[in-house]
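note to self — DONT lose this again. spent like an hour looking for the file last time. sequence + predicted structure for the chain T wanted, 284 res
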Amino acid sequence: MRLVDQAITRKSEADEANLPGEIIKLYEAEADLIGLPEILFAGVGRLIDADVVTYSEFHHVSGEFRSLLSVEDDPSRRAEAMAAFARHMHSHDFWRCHPAFFGERALRESDFFGEEEFATLPIAREVFLPSMARRIMSIVMQSGDYVLTISGHRVIGRATFSDRQRDLLEAYRPHVLRSYRQACDRTLASMTPTDRLRIAFPELTPRQLEVASWIARGKSNEDIATILDVGIETIKAHVKAIHAKIGADGRLAIAVMAHTVPPFARMPPLWRIGEKVWGGHPPA
């Protein structure tokens, strides 16, 4: 592993303790879910003197998961480590990162495993030690259908995270959670009416989606027929099909759906929204 952010290196005691400064930087960033990990990498790295910081999200509805590191990593090695972690994560509650187990605490591997015991753990031998990772401290937060885990890591040869650093991370935690929720809101707010309809109703064809989007903008059937250069009867047929597919009776209902941000049951993980995956076409 090679550090890509030289700010995430060993810090002086004064820098490490600058909790108010890190909280201010976190809120000033006003990040969405795409930009938030980088902000947390730097902030957590400085706050607890971590060599590497990981950011992981799990979305219960879809079962999708993303895990990001503050360092460059070999993709094949990363895939192997993730597979090994999945095999061994249920060996102890610390690895499962369940919100009920962590609560509002910051927990360290040293809270549960002694020096010799850790070296014998399958998850240590297959996941952490091959990457030179030895010390681990994590916080876990749940927000709606999402579980967010932030972990600081130190390489082999470094001391365990101190009680003081644990207290700093615990004090930082509520601000991370609040910033995460704000990032979710910003990500949702960035969606266009077309995006919202596409996500909420994937059964709409591209043409039906286009018609629905114009309806949401207040256009009449005649206006839409002119814009799309098709006959009025074609537009009426599309409107009828749209009503049938989304269960909306009337143009106002379509407009409300397009301009509101409800918790769509079929919405994909929010971190995928804003990653330029739409490109004017339905996702694959």
